[in-house]
Amino acid sequence: MSYPWLPLEIHVHILSELEPSAHWDASVKTLVNCSEANTLLRNAALLPALWEPHYRVRYSHCESQYEALRQEKYNSDFRLMYAERVRLDQEALQLLEEMMVQPERRHTLARRVAHGLSFDVWRVLELQLESAIPRCFLPEDLEDASRVYVPPHAVTRMFWAKSMLGTIARRHAVRTWGRLQMPGQDVSFEEALTGLSAFFCVSPHHIASQLDVLGSLCRVYLCKGRWPIDTSIREQVEDAVTRICEFMRNFGFKAGDPARFHNLFNHFPHCVLTTHKDTLPMSMVWLFVCLSRRLGLEASPVDFPRKVLAHVSVSGSEEGLLVDVYRTDQKVVLSAEADIPATLAAVGIPRNQSNIHEIQTRASPAGPMLLRAARNIGGSFHRMTQAEFDEMAQTDYESASYAAICADLILTNNGRALAHLVDPEWPTRLDVAPVLMDSLAPLLSSMNSNLLEKRCKEILAESEVRATQYRSGGVKHFCGMFFTHVTYAYTGCIVGWEASSSPDTAPLVCLSILAQPTCMASEEWIVRMGVDQLSGGRHQPFYKVITLMGSPRYVAEQNIMPMDPTPPHLVRSFFLKHQTMGMYFEDADIAEDRRGRMLLSRELRLKYPQDDEAGAQWVEMGRLRAHWGIEGSTYR
Question: GO MF terms on file (predicted)?
Answer without folding.
Answer: DNA binding
